[in-house]
UniProtKB/TrEMBL annotation, chains A, B, C:
<dbReference type="InterPro" id="IPR013529">
    <property type="entry name" value="Glyco_hydro_42_N"/>
</dbReference>
<feature type="domain" description="Beta-galactosidase C-terminal">
    <location>
        <begin position="623"/>
        <end position="678"/>
    </location>
</feature>
<dbReference type="Pfam" id="PF02449">
    <property type="entry name" value="Glyco_hydro_42"/>
</dbReference>
<comment type="similarity">
    <text>Belongs to the glycosyl hydrolase 42 family.</text>
</comment>
<keyword id="KW-0326">Glycosidase</keyword>
<dbReference type="Pfam" id="PF08532">
    <property type="entry name" value="Glyco_hydro_42M"/>
</dbReference>
<dbReference type="InterPro" id="IPR013738">
    <property type="entry name" value="Beta_galactosidase_Trimer"/>
</dbReference>
<dbReference type="InterPro" id="IPR029062">
    <property type="entry name" value="Class_I_gatase-like"/>
</dbReference>
<keyword id="KW-0479">Metal-binding</keyword>
<dbReference type="InterPro" id="IPR017853">
    <property type="entry name" value="GH"/>
</dbReference>
<protein>
    <recommendedName>
        <fullName>Beta-galactosidase</fullName>
        <ecNumber>3.2.1.23</ecNumber>
    </recommendedName>
</protein>
<keyword id="KW-0378">Hydrolase</keyword>
<dbReference type="Pfam" id="PF08533">
    <property type="entry name" value="Glyco_hydro_42C"/>
</dbReference>
<dbReference type="InterPro" id="IPR013780">
    <property type="entry name" value="Glyco_hydro_b"/>
</dbReference>
<feature type="domain" description="Beta-galactosidase trimerisation">
    <location>
        <begin position="400"/>
        <end position="607"/>
    </location>
</feature>
<feature type="domain" description="Glycoside hydrolase family 42 N-terminal">
    <location>
        <begin position="15"/>
        <end position="388"/>
    </location>
</feature>
<keyword id="KW-0862">Zinc</keyword>
Amino acid sequence: MAKTVPVERFTLGICYYPEQWPESMWADDFKRMKEIGFSIIRVGEFAWNLFEPEEGVYQFDLFDRAIDLAHQYGLQVIIGTPTATPPAWMTQRYPEILNVNKEGVPYRHGNRRHYNYSSPIYRDYCAKITEAMARHYADYPGVVGWQIDNELNAEGDRFYSDADDASFRVWLEGKYGSLDALNAAWGTVFWNQSYSDWSQIHLPRGTVNPHQALDEKRFISDNCISFVQVQVDIIRKLAPNQWITTNGMFPHLDNHKMTEQLLDFYSYDSYPNFTSIWNDDDRDQPLLDRIYSNYLTKTRSISPNYTIMEQQAGPGGWVTFAQSTPQPGQIRLWTYQSIAHGADMLLYFRWRTATFGTEIYWHGINDYHNQPNRRVAEVAKVGSEMARIGEAIVGSRFAAEVAILHDYDNEWDGELDVWHGPLSRESVYSWSKAMQFNHVPHDYLYINENTSLSNLTRYKVLIYPHAAILTDETAELLKQYVAGGGKLIFGARTGYKDKQGHCRMAPFPGPVAELCGITVEEFTLLTSKSKVPGLRWTDGKDESVQATMFNDILLPANDRVETVAVYDSAYYEGKPALTRNAYGEGEAYYYGAAFSLDAANALIRRLGLQPAAADQLELPQQVEIAIREKGDRRFAFLLNYSGEPAVARLLEKAEDLLEGVQLQAGDLTIEPYGVRVLALN
Amino acid sequence: MAKTVPVERFTLGICYYPEQWPESMWADDFKRMKEIGFSIIRVGEFAWNLFEPEEGVYQFDLFDRAIDLAHQYGLQVIIGTPTATPPAWMTQRYPEILNVNKEGVPYRHGNRRHYNYSSPIYRDYCAKITEAMARHYADYPGVVGWQIDNELNAEGDRFYSDADDASFRVWLEGKYGSLDALNAAWGTVFWNQSYSDWSQIHLPRGTVNPHQALDEKRFISDNCISFVQVQVDIIRKLAPNQWITTNGMFPHLDNHKMTEQLLDFYSYDSYPNFTSIWNDDDRDQPLLDRIYSNYLTKTRSISPNYTIMEQQAGPGGWVTFAQSTPQPGQIRLWTYQSIAHGADMLLYFRWRTATFGTEIYWHGINDYHNQPNRRVAEVAKVGSEMARIGEAIVGSRFAAEVAILHDYDNEWDGELDVWHGPLSRESVYSWSKAMQFNHVPHDYLYINENTSLSNLTRYKVLIYPHAAILTDETAELLKQYVAGGGKLIFGARTGYKDKQGHCRMAPFPGPVAELCGITVEEFTLLTSKSKVPGLRWTDGKDESVQATMFNDILLPANDRVETVAVYDSAYYEGKPALTRNAYGEGEAYYYGAAFSLDAANALIRRLGLQPAAADQLELPQQVEIAIREKGDRRFAFLLNYSGEPAVARLLEKAEDLLEGVQLQAGDLTIEPYGVRVLALN
Amino acid sequence: MAKTVPVERFTLGICYYPEQWPESMWADDFKRMKEIGFSIIRVGEFAWNLFEPEEGVYQFDLFDRAIDLAHQYGLQVIIGTPTATPPAWMTQRYPEILNVNKEGVPYRHGNRRHYNYSSPIYRDYCAKITEAMARHYADYPGVVGWQIDNELNAEGDRFYSDADDASFRVWLEGKYGSLDALNAAWGTVFWNQSYSDWSQIHLPRGTVNPHQALDEKRFISDNCISFVQVQVDIIRKLAPNQWITTNGMFPHLDNHKMTEQLLDFYSYDSYPNFTSIWNDDDRDQPLLDRIYSNYLTKTRSISPNYTIMEQQAGPGGWVTFAQSTPQPGQIRLWTYQSIAHGADMLLYFRWRTATFGTEIYWHGINDYHNQPNRRVAEVAKVGSEMARIGEAIVGSRFAAEVAILHDYDNEWDGELDVWHGPLSRESVYSWSKAMQFNHVPHDYLYINENTSLSNLTRYKVLIYPHAAILTDETAELLKQYVAGGGKLIFGARTGYKDKQGHCRMAPFPGPVAELCGITVEEFTLLTSKSKVPGLRWTDGKDESVQATMFNDILLPANDRVETVAVYDSAYYEGKPALTRNAYGEGEAYYYGAAFSLDAANALIRRLGLQPAAADQLELPQQVEIAIREKGDRRFAFLLNYSGEPAVARLLEKAEDLLEGVQLQAGDLTIEPYGVRVLALN
């Protein structure tokens, strides 16, 4: 069942912290929210002390008053369970609740996620506060849903406490049954690592057994999910009429599994302004804030229609780091970026900038001074626009014919393993960018043991850049996909590891060698000291592509396998670098390197992938297009990420939904950081 | 009362370690010291084991013999209390004396300042050794004064031991009275940080509550001062006829308060040769060793006439880092740099390079071989010069008409807070450099709750670059200053925080908005990825200035406020960047950015600030000028920091004090790294 | 007695891990090894759990079966004692076995060398397993020798456990006898470090007493040797007919002393492919993989004929770092590099790439797939070549007339001391490179208290770059060497420290001032900010040399001392930089700087050092030459390190041993990464 947001119309709102402001300000705040067009607020996710000021004493009056007043002003309320920040009295009394660093030093009160998910004591406290809150707020007027904790695995995605070790051992016993099985799976005969007692096993601290490290990530994910489940089970039972979600996408958590098993839908916190600090403008053609389209694409792979629980509302930063201020139009642009990719509910973070604490520079739409400002005006414009089109677009789905295959095992294994992880990160980035710039909408498809052929056949083309870990089952599925007419593209290092991360005693690419029609004769990793060879195309075309990071030297199995390109230098000059194998109704490509932007561009051309709405629109590179479809309606979101006006070309007439006008064919200007939403015919 | 050095004539001397050399060498050492022109030595500051080889057993014979012999050779003696390096037997017996690092790991014996200031046991040991020494050396022939500890807060300016936590809690209780007040001051409702018991509170370890972090620095400073006070109280009582000082300027210590409350005068350790490793020659116009004039200016703000307790005497370094050797003339040049800014007593560090230990490369004026060398000759030249002019210059005061305002709260808050701290550091550097190169002498004026209007009105111009924390009281004082005819210059980020570091719910610049005649409409921090806008001057002049680091977009309150310059690019192109507001008899400038060198230069020109002694001298950029005045006498120190001869122009006749000749108007050559001291008319 | 490999013919082999593969694969593995030309394997060094699966239960069946089968296929066996990786059950039961980091945090099971050498419990366990193995494998058919532990001090060359502190104190008591002597030696009067009880002393943790730090390294070395001795004594007694060695060269271990006292010969692990990651190609003329000739030269200084226990067999790397793949020919080239410098036995690492564990990317000659590949073919070529020439070359010795003097005290002292350590590293590198490129073979001569004049007089020229620590005894030996006709070259910073690292109270260069005929008048370290002066040659020749890193300004003692070059700039322009003093029959050079490549080149020319076999060969720079001599036979190894063919010139006829042909005078082409072995007349 698709995990989508249960709303009738697009829902706009904001995060609010009544506990941080004088109660006398609340009414004016809610009144102005409503005027802007907000209909929902999120509260409570860092307020444990207010709900339980001392152990076992629960109180809800402050939040009751705030929620009542909000409701009175027509606002719905999402309540966050406050488990991301346990009270000081609790961690002081039970230090085993704390997470510790790799050296064994406990984290301190004063941050977030300084606790571990494993402590039975903490889980018990969490259950009790959740139960008290769920009892109190089930069917409470205005309260529509729950956010579990906040940004799970943010600020901490590794765990080293004693409780975690204990929990890891239980998880391992459940998985392996015996130490013999574990020793075999972890290859402990290597370097004399064999365990003769479960108590000898720890989460890895500075050790580099890759199989143990992979299980570490799997455990952290499962452990986090079971931590969430404690709360979900309670809310489901006590407050069955309210929905449950959680926000954010952080390492070492299988958000797909968590959402599938526990949540009604998934939420994301979108802060594209981080690119004002950490962007990629050292590259030829930077993605800058468009990189967030990539994250939203991942979000959509979990919930086709999702919520943005926190949308950037101004410059962000703590006292210790700083973003610059979004330029005029960018906050609205980023809002539409979220919507274009599938948001049906969106809350800004936050109403007013905090005047104290770590985040005095994480600016809300209102400034400290609480006077009118540009950001409020920009958000109010979105509010009025959504009042007009929010009902039309809700529930429409993003359309794509291409998907990048992705899976958690390779992501987690590749974190430690520099022989394939960096390749995947580079190639996914290149493919995303190439498809962005070529206006080819794409999805992510996360593949796991539950993936079915029908999940794949929705796409004409699949790209699986560097699936080092590739099970026989997945290989079989991919063969069926190609046999049935699909096009599939692999990169270097495919298929040499099994599920445990052991290397197969077979020529690369292991279980897809037959599908690809090649084996890997030799290979070399390119270090920072290496000269990078290029490609020479066998059709003689002059298309410059660098074969970056890794070079597999391919050996076609037979004459029917087409060598599309060979290496143009190095000791393997002239050897096949890119091959194509017709297989059943489809075809499989194998590329022996990481995918540079040039390589992805070349493949897009050679595969004949077309821009979205190519019959109706011609777009410049700086504009992203996203199509959302509902029934026979197609909404085209055109997003101009540049500070200059962009000129698109409309090839046939269309309706401009935001302006409420009918457009004729011809030039179509999109203002700097501007947005158009067209209803296509 | 001015905290100045109580000497009748300029006093030259050196640091000496009798315990590190065979007693047979002492007499020759003292004899040669006297020949050079030294009249004072400092001893004892790292010799606790020699004073107290086992607990409670005090002995002074070695130092008595050394002091007696020195005195016999006509040398006075300063004694250092040895508390910077506790004996091994003490920290072994009472490990709670040790400071610990952020992870909780105790520091080890073998360094300096591996202890904490809080341990009651250590304070007791310090009191006892101080008492024993004070009893013994009070009125001891030759002993004139005391140095408390050594370079307080050097090697360690953060504290994490249990004793420190305990002491911090006592300090907080004294300050806040109740946990409610503390929770409010620290904004602990943010992220659920509220404390329900004093014992839950620690000095911050990896947490980023800015209000807690500010109190941490205030506590460290107060705690250090109270540590010093233990010793001072004892010496004042037992040795009332000897003066007390301490040396060095290190982080997290309010040297002004400490000197005001406890000391007779302040001392500084000047090592300009560090610029041979860590200089700023990556800048267009580097300050290099002239940066030490900046530190001496700060020293002078504490004691108008100060002591240099350690003056660079050769290449410095430990075994783990290294300076190059001062070039011929530089040791003398740096000596005069210290004198020009206000030194009335100066000791070199050290007599002879140690042949063992961590500092075998911290070269004294004598080499290991103890033969005549260039450095001894250079210092002897200073000795003979001071013999001639030391009585004339003593007690004269540095003259300046401009001051940079500075305060500890903003310095400490800005350490963590990247939204204003880096701006202040950059702007103070730029202003110092601009005034150096334009030959405009300046002071630092540290502002606090005791600052009076008369402290300010000594200056025609005050520059307060980025006073993020600005109390209403200080704002009122600044208004009075301007109303009375002063010129005052603010930079970006002024006035938005209160004393606790909370952000005011008012438009920037808060309490000086009326004084400046503007509010800040919008702002943006410039990250390393940002394009920096420039200024366009409304008077049409072509003067290139980059508006660096931060841009406040200003909104003049009315037509009477002059917009001096606007931004020349970015989305706020054409908006006011620099304004001037006539206020009473004076005027207030607000500049929306950090002050680059170009900005400071432009303002110096526009404010009409004149070079010192402009009627008498024309100076090239590489020469610093400092004027010391006493009664109607004016001594001009001309310091040539370059390795080439510098040619100044003397506009009227003057006396060359060092050469003892009368100079006529005309060209005046200053040799490479050379110095001239002129008596101006 | 020369510690050389006791073999009759060159012996080729490989490292093998039977425990990591199905027993069914063994026979095929051994069969193919034999076909390649291998005659020896190494096993067992990481297999403690297999030998002792629980405490006190010893079992050998798996290895017995493997060894029996190997022997059956004609392979000899080296057994590694498994003490580099203690079992989990052991470190869990006795955590005091673990080494801890500087912060006191114990290392974890799962790596190598996470234990300390000091724990009596661990030494006891090691003794027991060694005894059990020695009893079992003494005179076991096929077993010829032992490797103690594995790569001593790799992965950990600092020790901080309680056991280490205790052992350090015992070592210190043995060395100094009394605390007074220790306090004097460590100069603890400096900074009040004096110890009044042995228990106050620790291995240095973040402290920088240079004398303590030097003793730390001496202790670590002695402690490691005594750890090895426990095992050696047992094997000598129980298995007197098998030889003993160990492999690798890592910091803080006097391999010379260890080999002299305990081993039959020394072994090295050669991985030149590390230069694909960490090479020096940022230099003008990089050494790249030729740097390994330098390491082999050091190896040869321990054992004139040594074993390579692990020779690179493919790309190396862990999951966390990666080398690129050796290019065709490089594995063979590196094999001959090892042989050319003195190997008489060589084992590749490893037979087949591990399919699990940390080292799945440390490629053996066989791939995971176990099919024929390029690397196996390349190694088989070596096998067939050695079958032909292995008997001829065995026992022949590398010939050199020049040596670089080296000693552990300066190496260890210079690790911490930036005032001489970096100079030595730079100068040794420059000299090695200059001699490589000029085809002047050289040795390392490690000098210590047992070095005799006859060790020195084997060489015409000795270079002792920066002997900061220089005892009177060594100085005397050097004087005798020069007096007898030797040429000796010193660099800056010579002779100012005594054996304890105290600075001498005498002009530099202390005990060799008379030999050199100069003293150092002044000096300066050049920092990264300094302008580097050049040399001006007094004979007027135009030869460009930069006087890098440090400049001693020399003062000749008399007119007979020749000033060869002076500084060409800086304040000491024109002062002597390089001097030559005739002394007895020889001459001593003193150079006041570090030796750049240009300086070494200039000295090679001025000393008239000739290329090897200059009468018979002319070689291009990219080719290394090494001569091995036996009786009247001279074997010239020509190694082409470039990827292009190299053309040498043969001046008279010679025999090409590998090709088995007679060569006439004329051009001689060496293929890319190719090797020639010539029998010279």
